Structures are given as structure tokens and as C-alpha cells.
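Regression check, flavin-adenine dinucleotide case 410:
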Amino acid sequence: MAQNPTHEVVIIGGGSAGIATAASMLKRRPALDVAIVEPSEHHYYQPGWTMVGGGVFDAPVTCRSMASVMPRKVRWIRQAAATFQPESNRVTLADGSTVTYGILIVAAGIRLAWEKIEGLEETLGKNGVTSNYRYDLAPYTWELVQNLKSGRAIFSQPAMPIKCAGAPQKAMYLSCDAWMDRGVLGDIDVEFRNAGGVLFGVKEFLPALMEYVEKYRIALKLNQNLVSVDGPAKTATFKTEAGEETVEFDMLHVVPPQVAPQFVADSPLADAQSGFVDIDKFTLRHVRYPNVFGVGDAGSTPNAKTAAAVRKQAPIVAVNALAALDGKPPVADYDGYGSCPLTVERGRIVLAEFGYDGKLLPSFPKWVIDGTRPRKLSWLLKSEVLPWIYWNGMLKGHEWLVRPQVKTAA
Ligand code: FAD
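Current build output:
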């Protein structure tokens, strides 16, 4: 690669947010010179991993080659970004080469910090220890569910922030449903051990979720932080308010602690506290560097970190970044929309859709889908409609139901 090439727009990360934003920008300005820095050969539809762990999808339907989702006009730089020099509009890549930009968009996702739980990494994928948070492990969740007949199954959730805060319990409900179906649930003690103090952060969805906690006879244990796992001994240790507790398990579904990508946290772009890209929660523009934006899980905004949020954010970053490229102020605001389709049983979903401060933001009128109740139509949305919209709409710059409202000049 030539040293120090320049592009009008450089995007770091070719995940959901990076590809969707590039596609949205190119739809508006087809001649735009966009480069995406992305080392991975694969692109994943991560919301599908819950369905893989629940035996509904086969893992390969959630994975496509990066080449196949990269917008045709984008220059794909196949390596990792290493450091940022925003004062000189430059990014240094892992091989030491640099690239400069007019606009920088950081979409590098969130880092899964498996190493923060002692003993976990070496036992993942064996000894009954699994996680839907990795493509290669989600099928093992379903294998364990199918084989378990009795004993103790623990589902853990770490402290916030995590991507898709509902995913730890989605894994549990689908497992319970399968066990109930096979008539073995009565012989399995199911525990949900959550580092947080509530089952779910938005209260309107709690009654429906609690009905399932009761139906499946789940022991709900709050303020429990998983600190270590001994795979061969099949024990997990949690830090609790009373001290430490070590418990035996037959199946353990772990959701790892999650942090800002290290190279972002170490950079001048980072929010001092969280390490995520320090952006304005409405315009998604960097608070110190006006030609830098953040989108998706890598951003510091206090929304639910979901692909649904990305679907709404990407067009907003697209119009605001294009305005910045033209020397104009931001033209659209993000309302914090995110969505978490809680798979409470195979065939029914509680469709949590909400924005900043837990404000309910349903996409459909209540008579079509009441998001606070388990609904078959919501399952159809998750299992059929949303994956199709993801691959054919969102990643291609189609902004169905999420076209930004552009402010007109005063
Ligand atoms: P990602 O899609 O993770 O992409 C980040 C990209 O950055 C990756 O391609 C990575 O390779 C790249 N990258 C990393 N480091 C560098 C670097 N140094 N240089 C260049 N590139 C780099 N969302 C929903 O809306 N609904 C759901 O039901 C749902 N369920 C989920 C269930 C599970 C089990 C999981 C794991 C996630 C779920 N999500 C769900 C969340 C959703 O998948 C994420 O919020 C979404 O993928 C975020 O997109 P992103 O582009 O910010 O990050």
C-alpha cells in the first residue's frame, strides 16, 4: 500500500456500523471517496447468534465474507488501525503505514474482555462452558442444551455496558423453553446471575419477563459478578454483596465483560472515563474534533448498544458527516433508539424498543405489535424479517423507517 494515501472519508471498522454508514453516504453522494480500514475477512450478523444458541439458525447463515458486504465503491484497507493523530487528520495502521482523511468515522465496535474472568478462556467450548457472544461457540450452547437432562445451568451477565443487554437472558429463556419441551426442565435448576441490580433496565418490559422467570422457575440472583471459572472442576465463582460464592454447574453460559477497544481507549479520541469515542449523544460528532464521528458500539453515547441502534445512527452520521465535509454544522439528531428482541420462548418475543432515558420508541402501533407483551409477530420479525433487512437494506444504504429528519437552516 502506498504511504499516506488520502481519502475524503476514512471509516475504522467494517462491522454493522462501518458498512451501513459507508453505504448511506454513498447513496447520497456516489462519487464520494471512502476507505474502510478493516482487518477481518468475515462480517457477522451477531443478532443471529442468539438464534444459533437456541437451535433456530445454523451458524453459517450469520456469516458472510467481508468482500461481499463491502460497498462496491469503497476502498477496503485490509488491516487494523493502531493509533489516531486527529490533530493532523491521520490514522496509523498496524503495519506502521498511515492514511489521512477529511472526515474520520470510528466504528470499531466493543471489545469482549474474556480475560477479565480468571480461567474462562481456556475452558470456553468445553466442560459445559459456552457463550453466544462468539460465532464458534454459539453452536456449543445448543449442543449443551440438547444434552442436558438434569443438574444446574447458570447464565451470567456482567456489568454494563454490554452489547445487546438482553442477550444473556435470551439465551436462558430459549434454553428453558427447549428443556420444558423435552420435559426435563423440572430436573434442571436454572440460575440467572446478573452483575446488575435489575433483570432489565426499562421497567415497562419487566412484567412480561418476570412471567417467564416464574414459568421456567428461574432463580434470579442480582448483584453477582462472575470472577473465575474452573472448567475441569465445573465450578464458577461469583463476587456477591456478601462476599464470594463458588457454585457447581453442569452448564454455564457466560457473557464476558465488555470495554472500549484498547486502541480507541488509548487515543486522543477517547472519553476520559469510558474509553469509548467521545461523541455528542445527538449529533454523534466528536466533542473535540469536528471532523471526527463515532457510530455503533464504539461510541460513548448512552443508548442500548445494538444493531438496531446502528440502523438508526448510520444515516444520521452519514448526513452529519457529509455536512461537515461541506463545512456545515450537523443537520440531524439521534434520539437514542435501540431495540432488544427478547426471545422469551421459541415463537414469541418481547420486543423492547426504547431511546434515551428509557423512553419507549415503538416502531409499530400497539394494535400491530405491543412490545411489552410476548408476541408471535415479533418472532417473525426477528427470525425472518430483520436478517433480510440487515443484509439487503441496512448494509446497502436503504433507510426504511430510519431516514433522518434533516433540520432546515433557520
Ligand atoms: P461490530 O459489528 O462488532 O463491528 C466492529 C468491527 O470493527 C469489526 O468488523 C472488527 O473487525 C472491526 N475492528 C475492530 N478493531 C479494529 C481495528 N483496530 N481496526 C479496524 N477495524 C477494527 N443487536 C440487535 O439490534 N438486536 C439483537 O437481537 C442483538 N443480539 C445480539 C446478540 C449477541 C449474542 C451479540 C454478540 C450481539 C447482539 N446484538 C444485537 C448487538 C449487535 O450485534 C451490535 O450492537 C452491532 O454489531 C454493533 O455494530 P458495530 O459495527 O458497532 O460493531
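Comparison notes: The chain has a mean pLDDT of 97. The chain has two domains: 6-110+260-339+383-396, 114-258. No diff flagged against the previous build.
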